[in-house]
User: Fold this.
Amino acid sequence: MSALKVAMLVALSGWMMAAAGAVSLSGTRLVFDGRFPQASIEVRNRGDHEVLLQVWLKEGGNDDDTVSGALPFVVTPHLVRLPARGREQLRLLYQGQGMPTDRESLLHLYVLEIPRRVEGVQQLSIALRQRINVFYRPQQLPGDPALAPESLLWERKGNRALRLSNPTPFYAALQDVRLDGVLLGDYLLLAPGAGHDWPLPATPAVAQLSFKALTDYGGQRGYCARLAVSAAPTPSVQRDKEHC
Assistant:
């Protein structure tokens, strides 16, 4: 490898390390329990320099990541100067009305990291943005959110498609959905009352379904069921403690 290529790789590696981002959040998701007027999440600066953060909230499903004030929530602080190795609690406050009360709602929390400019030659500064899901959960929803994955309805439409329906008032976040070991989808976030279809590969009349569901705290639980070709959806899914 030529000396020029080596120099370029070293320079690019340095830029990539500088742009890797020093800010982290204490969770990969946040559940806003409607019994309380606020929810919080910690943001931490793991770097050696001060950073400026801009924080905002958006309605879920909206790919436009610009700042909006249309939601009945307040995020505080929305501008943060975070010193090196510093921490800050970001608080979300609900105004008390304006959100559906019969189901969970999905929001997106954005944290934009603007690195402090350090004088130097050939410096590359990149503003990095993080986004996590926030689930606003009204109080007194029927059912247990921890048991929602077991209530999902699965239906094999012949050998053509696998239909998933969510009859619960909670969001279902699924990973690694497989039928007889064949991967159908690596991630799906299914809204309350929504459905999703996967095209099916060639599978036997009775096939093994398996998937993982994310908990409120970002952990995973495994589930499984035996699915036959049927005209009716089935909720016969159980926790996979060892093997189905």
Summary: The chain has two helices and 17 strands. Helices lie at 3-18, 148-151. The first strand starts at residue 23 and ends at 25. The CA atoms of residues 82 and 96 lie 30 Å apart.
